[in-house]
Write a structure and sequence with these properties.
The complex is a heterodimer.
Chain A: E1 13-16, E2 19-20, E3 25-38, E4 50-64, H1 72-82, E5 86-91, E6 103-110, E7 125-132, E8 138-141
Antiparallel strand pairs in A: 1-2, 1-5, 3-4, 4-7, 5-6, 6-7, 6-8
Chain B: E1 2-6, E2 20-23, H1 27-35, E3 39-41, H2 75-81
Antiparallel strand pairs in B: 1-2, 1-3
The chains are: A mainly beta, B alpha+beta.
Chain lengths: 143, 87
């Protein structure tokens, strides 16, 4: 079923390098932005003039650390160690991508990874930042 | 295009655990997924979407109606295999 209007995010789908890690993640945000370049000249009426520079995209995901086969650690550690690029896919719902369930796709790379992070007795949640690593940038798939 | 089986407990490339699928996976990603034990190569491909393509063929048992040219034809059997009897 596709996402309805004003639904809380419950069944989001998160795929990292082909592996579905939705059930071990509890927070995701995708940021696509362009740098602001000041192109103000003299006699500009007293205002700055901003132009858009290069764009970048970042996907932040919070995972509950899991060292079992094919889970968080075993998926992310090799990606960080090798520095290789990989594909990230995020959808608001587990249903197939559609106009009302758009899938964000990005080829990214990890620049940091925390294999362990928690206080005593607390759930071990790690935040992973994936940065764009392709000229394709962040794309949206609706079919 | 290669054939794989999802061997782990997580969905891989949208395929459920235990599911067989065909995909073109880039070399690095294939190695990572194989190393992690999430997929295995499916050596015995049994189905091809393109009969004229270059897919591996699997031996298929001949249907009972096929008559072996080396064996003398038994008219009774032949009539049964042919379906409708002519009057």
């Amino acid at each position: 079923m596709a996402v309805e209007a004003k639904q809380p995010l419950i069944d989001a789908s998160i795929e990292i390098d082909g592996v579905d890690l939705s059930q071990v993640a509890n927070e995701v945000d995708i940021d696509d932005s362009a740098s602001e370049e000041d192109v103000s000249g003299f006699q500009g009426g007293g205002y700055t003039e901003e132009a858009r520079g290069l764009k970048t995209a970042v996907i932040n995901i919070t995972f509950f650390q899991d060292y079992s086969t094919g889970s968080v650690h075993q998926t992310l550690k090799p990606l960080y160690d090798s520095g290789e690029t990989f594909v990230v896919k995020v959808k608001p719902d587990d249903a197939p991508a559609s106009e009302d369930n758009p899938q964000s796709v990005m080829t990214g790379r990890l620049f940091g990874y925390s294999p362990i992070k928690a206080q005593v007795g607390k759930a071990q949640a790690i935040q992973v930042t994936i940065r764009n690593a392709s000229s394709d940038g962040l794309t949206e798939v609706t079919s | 295009m290669k054939s794989y089986i999802v061997t782990g407990t997580r969905k891989v490339l949208g395929n459920e655990p235990g599911e067989r699928f065909e995909a073109e996976i880039d070399e690095a990603q294939e190695r990572r997924l194989l190393d992690a034990g999430l997929i295995e190569l499916d050596e015995g491909q049994t189905w091809s979407p393109d009969p004229g393509g270059e897919h591996e063929e699997t031996e298929v048992e001949a249907p009972e109606s096929v008559v072996d040219p080396e064996v003398p034809v038994d008219e009774t059997t032949s009539a049964e295999a042919g379906g409708e009897e002519q009057e």
